[in-house]
Design a protein that fits this description.
By secondary structure, the protein is mainly α. The chain folds into three domains: about 25-55 and about 305-500, Arp2/3 complex 21 kDa subunit ARPC3 (Orthogonal Bundle), CATH 1.10.1760.20; about 90-260, no CATH class; about 510-755, Hypothetical protein af1432. It is built from 31 helices and ten strands. A four-stranded mixed beta sheet has the order 6-5-3-8. Strands 1-10 form a two-stranded antiparallel sheet. α22 packs across α28 and α23 (about 545-555) crosses α28.
Length: about 750
Amino acid sequence: MAFLPKNIEIIASNAKNGLGDNLFIKIIIAIVLIALTSAMFPSPEIFEYDYKVGTVWIEKDLIAPFSFPVYKNQAKYENDKKEAISSVHKVFTVDDAVASAQVESLRAYLKYLKSFHEIQNKLKKNPTSADSLKFDNLRLLLPPGITPHDIEAINRTTDLDEMESFLLKTTGDILNRGIINQRHSSIQIREIAIRKGNTETILPVHNYFDLDSALVSIRGKIFERYSKYELASLAIKIVEPVIRPNIIFNQAETDALISAAVENVPLTVGFVQENERIVSKHERITPEIKLKLESFGKAKIDRGTYGERIIRKVGVVFHTTLILLLYGIYIYLFRKRIFHDNSKLAMIAILILMQAFFAHLSVKIDVNAPIQYLIFLPASAMLLTIIFDSRVAFYGTVVMALLIAGIRGNDYDIALASLVAGALAAYTVRDIKHRTQIFRSLVFIFSGYALTIIALSLERFETFTVFLQELTFAFANAVFSPVLTYGLLIFFEKSFRITTDLTLLELSDQNHPLLKILREKASGTFHHSMTIGTLAEAAADAIKANSILARVGGYYHDIGKSLKPEYYAENEVQKKSRHHRLTARMSTLVIISHVKEGMELAREYSLPESVIDFIPQHHGTTLISYFYEKAMKQAAVKKLTVEVREEDYRYPGPKPQSKEAGIVMLADVVEAYTRSMPDPTPEKLESAIDNRIKTRFIEGQLDECELTLRDLTKIKEAFLNILTGIYHQRIEYPKTQITESANDNRQQGEENHNNIRLI
């Protein structure tokens, strides 16, 4: 059971459901997959000399075939750049015009205050209209918080000339010392470059005020000079507007210095001469030797000619193609229904690309940690198992593990670990029954990684620190892989309209809206459908088909009868059938209509196409013999000249296209026939089942569903086991006249039921 193609019929789709079976699209998918995967392969030189510090060089002595520089470790180079940038002094330019302009502005304002005070005194002694108007105009220019009363109070308290002299001197001293236009706290280096004209001086930043410290300084001097708070407060209001920075940060010059500093940071830490030994055989790799090896690999890439690069790329593409071709051949030979569905091939390509991308990231991200164990291959393995089957997943896991190893420079360790963990992950979800069961795989994924890590660590005498670190990353993979699987499964189901066993299990819930409608409006059909589902599931299990799909197909195969339930024998409550009032042709149209109406109803409730296919296929192109014979008799009696065409009394089809649909067809006719048998002994049941199956086989209804004679035998045995249990021998009770009459009526009803049910 572990390798059964569970969804082999589910994944069969046609052009209306996906990308169809277009050969051109297949070629496009293959080219895109190979191209993108190949692009994720780094240059082979990156891994050719990729030895860890502390390991032993087991190759022969490596002699430099040419001279090359030894480049710094990237982390060291970035750190040197940061230090160079942090050592650059910020450049500030002195603007002398600002200091003189602000002092003159203060002088003019104080002069204005004196004029205002003089007019104020004139108005007190001899008020005139002209002075009053001038006073009103000057009052509008007073700063916020200063009133004419304040100016008069200043004059009473101190001499305005004296205040003017003090404020001009204090402000001039602060501006002459200099105010920078950045906070002290924002400047990391305690020194700055001051440019004045063509000269530049490096001085401590605290030699200058910033705006906050300048205001603090002038406030302190004012309060020191004037003891009265009101007077000091007014003086501060007068002088604060003119305190502005006069040493301005020069962003452009600073950036130029930073660029120059970065350019001056050396990329190399040494040089290897031609014919110089890089590393000797059995020599332990030191940090210095590792730098030489990495630099040698980089130098080989840089020295490679254009033709060599092209040949290398061709090799990578050929390498990738060989690996993917193995998977393609397997799908073509053993999973033709996947091969002929381009939407499913595209989905497989996406899963492979996802793992290739994770492997590519693990190479590109330069961290001193085993991040290769965060390549979530188990997620793709589980998705392939749930959507297709465990064999497709296992072969896919092998292919993805090989690609990951190739992208990581033939990394055998991660290939083995990914293969073991991916295989275990696939096996844990091969018989999944509900979505939360995905998280059960966590233990098995971690076990797969852990066992591989333990084996390789013991073999190579890894330190406990390295061993523990690898286990930690493997555990993170085991946690996140089920989460990723859960989310991507929903995405693929919606985007590619895939019907997985999980979807089918959800549809098998008898509280589904469609089944509830069928139960309420056509209870006879509902119970018949439940029996069909049971028979189909047992038969599918017997021939290794998809039993879940067969069961769900049986549940929904007759949902169209819920719209006109009274026209079907299993739902009749009256003795007289409604078909007695209709012509044979009209009855046939009513009976056939439940197929089309059922399909429309199923699509309205968003049933998957793989389930909808059971509605027309379980009838195939069978003849509605009861009404056909009735029509023939009516035509003979009435001597009608209109020909009774047999095709008018056949279902439109198609014939069953899958094993599961064929099973449901057989279950439907067998259940209807055996239900009305008066004494269903095992012998009679076996004969009836055999007869019904042979009839459908001879009619050619099973020609397109790949059921073999061996399968039909197993199906018959499965049906017999189930029906024997349903129609087991009952205890005989003494008969009375009433029960005999009732039995006669029941038998007559069953005969009528059988005639119509065989429709």
